[in-house]
Design goal:
Helix content of chain A: 25-40%
CATH architecture of the largest domain in chain A: 3-Layer(aba) Sandwich
Low-confidence stretches of chain A: none
Largest interface: A-B, 131 and 130 residues
Number of strands of chain A: 23
CATH class of the largest domain in chain A: Alpha Beta
Oligomer: homodimer
Strand order of the largest sheet of chain A: 10-15-14-13-11-12
Radius of gyration of chain A: 31 Å
CATH topology of the largest domain in chain A: Rossmann fold
Number of domains of chain A: 3
Structural class of chain A: alpha/beta
């Protein structure tokens, strides 16, 4: 237990100050403060000594230098049970500071509010983090409070311990204090790296806020949590059970696709983080039905994502199947009524969410593999027609759609498309030939399309066998990146079979 | 351009000090220092003013308070072109500090050397980061140097600009300085969280060092880099082309499996981050041949990982196939000679690498999904035999092996095993039935095993169809987590067909 006799208070965010001051007064804690904090303490009617009076040294450089003083830092840093320290303090007439209550200049807020660079820089706090770090280092003797949310914990602690704090409490507050200083400087370094356009600095610091602890991870024996830049995502859950790790994983997979489809038309069905049906048909009911038709068995228990608003009619269709989650750019009131009849069904309004993903990473052991996102969305101008037979307009549209979906399918990926809808997706196979076969099997099993079928491959065909299988199954046009030593053979084969062959040049591996 | 007239030097790591001091002397820079740095500067024969003389204030509390003084910080923080600042400096007789050269107490080293908590805490630097942060904030006027690797850059800069530094240079050094302070406090906060056993704090800071920038990411149009806790991984590449992003991704997938197999026996072949063959046969040649036999087509261009040393005989077998990477716990000299004849083949000695993965995460947009690793390795005591027919010893061994491999196969996962080797792997399908079919197809295509076949499923069978297909294909024993509402039907079906059915209780989703 350490008795609190004196407190140094320096705050940018002055929330909840009154109950704190009342508790300090009750425990006869001497308060030292400066600037705006000093003024408000006096205004609230509490006694307070100015820092400049405490240090006997003026506040200078427009406040840049006020607490950076040996009297302050010796007051915080001296070890109370060290005789040399105590002697040095006594000789100089230095006094202990037992409690440091500081929050920092709002640097992150300044960035988010897009202030100019000069103003942002001025919001780098020097004195604050120094006091907090000093107090946190000396937690054996000193209590450090870094946010107004901790005031009530402090008030309770002082009450329980009659004006003292326990080592356990000081330890905890010290731990959080170092998180705050680390977080603060992480924001600063990432700001500087961003304006200098440096993606991969020598030392990389990733800083995130806890959105929520999840019930468990991919499996019940794993713990899990979701972190982000702010304490909530721009996904508004309006109904249903709490989201699980696997829900989030599927939702993220769905949004990556949904948000890149043509505006206001696109249905994506996801199962096990893989798309099992995508359609961009104009008619929204047809779009959903076509996406579902690609693999209705897999869709069971999956999640559906629309980049448009769900109508009553669509809701009645959706109700016929079992889904874990439905994501949309809003829901009509009548649609909501229908869907809310399913108690557990999670409904997500993603209309405020926009995709702006630049860096992607995943961990292994203590390592992180980091890369810029595969944002290559191809259009007509990116492709090269290499077969004698030229594609018609519909084929081109379907080829581009198929290839742009490939990007989101686990490699090796084969996507079959007919009439702006996938009709077969082969994913996650070590052999490209197997992915072809899986896509074809899906098509044969579930689809009765009368329209032409086109195919996309996320990487080149290493041998003729894959493309051969596709053509034999009725595919009339194929898009692939090219780059194999057998490209010529494959062009010849396309020509011999009267197939349209298009090179996209871009590869879309996704593991 | 800003002329450097005075420098404050405070170093824990005193490498390369001499050439720095020579350059400062040449440019008539006045040096201020204290403690150990002061002593070594004097010893090297250079002039130096003690900090205590500069501030006119003693160094106290065993060095805890020396530079935390208004004279130092006003000297750093004053804006040279601000009249009020200049006036305040002049009145007090404060002098400018134009250059701050500081590195910190070695906190990370103290942790790595497993010093006691008290010593670790003593290694939290307060004065150093404060000076660096102040100088970095005021980069418009002040140059900040945070590592001896930057000395030569500084020396060049002073030479080119005749004793001045450019804004560009100061900006760059400031950016790196904030990375250093952020990194430093990240290490501290993670140390405190670790000893407090907190995996998911309110604010999560991940700090990593660049191992290498990679040529590109998963695809050529993506930039990429590998980060880790130290500047190199414990993987020793002894031959071959530079490792690519996809190589690393495959190597990590391979090591996750290799390092969990029984010691000194285990072959894993990986393609597209998925295993396409695993064997734990005692005989190392047979082990490799069996792993390869599981899917020899997919193995082409894949990577092979052994958790034992590669012999000459094994090397001659390996030479027959095309691989991107071979990982092993070392290579015999004769083996190396054989394998090095393939110029591009990457050879990795992973004998020093041990797997100790606690947290796993991946990113989406600005979010991170984080979870404790799925480390559940099941053994005989974890399983429950639920069929009338009881498994024999070989079946149990094969069932456990199959289920423990499931953990590393992308969901839905089905693994068929015969004689301690996989004979069919079905992965990455939204439908469990499809994964069953893929595994069976592999087995039918490549395997002529005379031994019994067992099957593992990473999650329960939602319907009877999957297990039915497996049994029809010759599977005599099945292991699965259980948990379906149709578990009873599945037990009945196993009994009706004389199949061994075992519940593992643990699920192994892996997306």
């Amino acid at each position: 237990m350490k008795k609190i006799r004196s407190a140094l208070i320096s705050l940018s965010d002055k929330t909840n100050l009154k109950p704190l001051l009342q508790a300090l007064k009750k425990n006869r804690v001497k308060i030292i403060s400066s600037g705006g904090t000093f003024k408000i303490i006096k205004k609230l009617g509490f006694k307070c000594l100015e820092v400049s009076k405490f240090t006997n040294s003026d506040e200078i450089l427009e406040g840049r230098v006020k607490t950076l003083h040996p009297k302050i830092h010796a007051g915080i840093l001296n070890k109370r049970d060290n005789k040399t320290h105590s002697k040095e303090m006594k000789i100089r007439g230095f006094q202990n500071i037992d409690l440091v209550i500081v929050n920092f200049y709002p640097f992150e807020k300044a960035i988010n509010e897009k202030k100019n660079h000069g103003k942002i820089i001025e919001n780098i706090d020097i004195g604050g983090p120094t006091m907090v770090r000093a107090a946190a280092k000396n937690y054996n003797d000193v209590t450090v409070i870094t946010s107004h949310e901790q005031y009530f914990e402090l008030i309770d602690e002082l009450k329980i311990n009659k004006g003292s704090t326990s080592l356990k409490f000081r330890e905890k507050m010290s731990r959080i204090a170092f998180t705050e200083t680390a977080y603060y400087d992480s924001v600063i370094t990432n700001y500087f790296n961003e304006i200098s356009k440096i993606s991969f600095p020598e030392k990389k610091i990733i800083h995130k806020k806890l959105v929520e602890k999840l019930r468990y991870g991919e499996n019940p024996h794993q713990e899990s949590a979701l972190y982000s830049d702010s304490k909530s995502l721009l996904l508004n859950q309006i109904h249903g059970k709490t989201l699980s790790y696997n829900n989030y994983n599927d939702i993220f997979s769905a949004l990556r696709i949904s948000k890149t489809l043509p505006k206001n038309k696109g249905t994506v069905i996801i199962k096990h983080a893989n798309p099992c049906g995508v359609s961009i048909l104009d008619n929204k009911i047809k779009s959903y039905k076509s996406a579902l038709a690609c693999d209705p068995l897999s869709a069971f228990g999956g999640i559906v994502s629309f980049n448009f608003k769900v109508t009553e009619l669509l809701a009645s269709e959706l109700k016929k199947n079992f889904y874990e989650v439905i994501i949309a750019n809003g829901f009509d009131r009548a649609a909501l009524k229908i869907l809310k009849s399913k108690k557990n069904l999670r409904l997500i309004d993603a209309s405020k969410f926009s995709l702006n993903e630049n860096i992607k990473f995943n961990s292994f052991e203590n390592s992180i593999l980091m890369q810029s996102t595969d944002n290559q969305h191809i259009s007509k101008k990116n492709i090269k027609i290499v077969s004698k037979k030229k594609p018609n307009k519909t084929q081109i549209e379907n080829l581009l759609f198929a290839f742009n979906i490939c990007r989101f399918v686990k490699s090796n990926a084969i996507v079959l498309v007919s009439n702006k809808s996938t009709v077969g997706i082969g994913s996650g196979q070590p052999s490209r030939l197997d992915s072809c076969q899986i896509a074809i099997n899906k098509m044969d099993k579930f689809n009765n399309t009368q329209d032409e079928i086109v195919a996309a491959s996320d990487a080149f065909f290493p041998f003729q066998d894959g493309i051969e299988k596709l053509i034999q199954s009725g595919v009339s046009a194929v898009i692939q990146p090219s780059g194999s030593i057998r490209d010529k053979d494959i062009i010849s084969f396309a020509n011999a079979t009267g197939t349209v062959l298009v090179f996209s040049k871009t590869r879309h591996f996704n593991h």
